[in-house]
Amino acid sequence: MSIAAQVLAQSADDLKNAAAAEGAGFAYGLAAIGPGIGIGYLVGQAVQAMARQPESAGQVQTTMFLGVAFTEALALIGFVVFILLKFA
Amino acid sequence: MTEYPNAAMQRLEGPAPVIDIAKDLVRRALLIAPVAIGIGAVFWQTAGAASVAYGLVIVMANFMLAAALLSWAGKISFAAMGGAAMFGFLLRLGLIFVAVLLVKDESWVEMLPLGLTLITAHLVLLFWEMRYVSATLAHPGLKPTTRLPIHTAADNTETQGAA
Q1: What ipTM score was computed for the predicted complex, to two decimals?
Q2: Residues of A with Cβ-Cβ distance to B112 under 8 angstroms
Q3: Cβ of B89 and A68 within 8 Å?
């Protein structure tokens, strides 16, 4: 194989790796934005509910914790896409 | 003019139900662990079983850390709880990333079962717990275990008659 062909093949590999890294980074970053907004809104509303009705704080806290964990699952999906694109 | 207390500066008193929820999630994770590890072993052999087990440990640690952070911050103030939820989310995502990064080149790790375990275990445990919480309408410690006596309208009539 000529030197020019080797250089071209190498740069094609580099481009492919760079595109995979870029895609993985975007997947993880974008997937974290939505849950961030969701968790902020959810916790804000839960804090308001607990402040208004302290007697039901336990129930609100329970629901809030489950809600936070569900919202976080979206970020985890993005993270798994990231590790599969980057490391698998 | 009535002065209302600052909601952000109030704090939670009493026991934290989120710790109970997290413990319950861990207990359920331990229950499904043998089945999940078995499935990992069937499809990806030893590396698959080890990866599934590692994924389950990450999920359990994630739940426990989230609950510990929220209950700790809730005892300081509601504002601190909001901060702990937001920065705890980033912290835990970072910790999961580090946990995967540390083992990615190990021979006993398969990325696909590890990734699948992280998602499915998280969701399955949450749906399971949500069904339980919805059924009890409170945190798990409050679930009634003994049948209480049922008072009927006839009982009330008898009581009124005796009076």
Answers
A1: 0.75
A2: 84, 88
A3: yes
Kindly state the helix (H) or strand (E) to which residue B82 belongs, with its residue range.
helix B78-103
Q: Please count the structural domains in chain B.
A: 1
Q: Indicate left, alpha or beta for B12 from its phi (over 0: left) and psi (-120 to 50: alpha).
A: beta
d(CA B55, CA B53): 5
Phi, psi of A13 (to 5 degrees): -65, -45
CB-based contact, B12 to chain A, within 8 Å: yes
Any A CB within 8 A of B22 CB: yes
- Residue B136: inside a domain: yes
Q: Does B115 touch chain A (CB under 8 A)?
A: yes
Q: What is the pTM of this model?
A: 0.77
Closest partner residue to B115 (CB to CB) among A47, A68, A84 is A84
Residue B150 has pLDDT above 70, yes or no: no
Is B91 a domain residue?
A: yes
Does B119 reside within a domain?
yes
Please provide the size of chain A in residues: 88
**Tens digits of per-residue pLDDT, B17-46?**
888 889 989 999 999 999 999 999 999 989
What sign does the dihedral B153-B157-B158-B160 (CA atoms) show? positive
Find the length of chain B: 163
Cβ distance B7 to A51 less than 8 Å, yes or no, reads yes
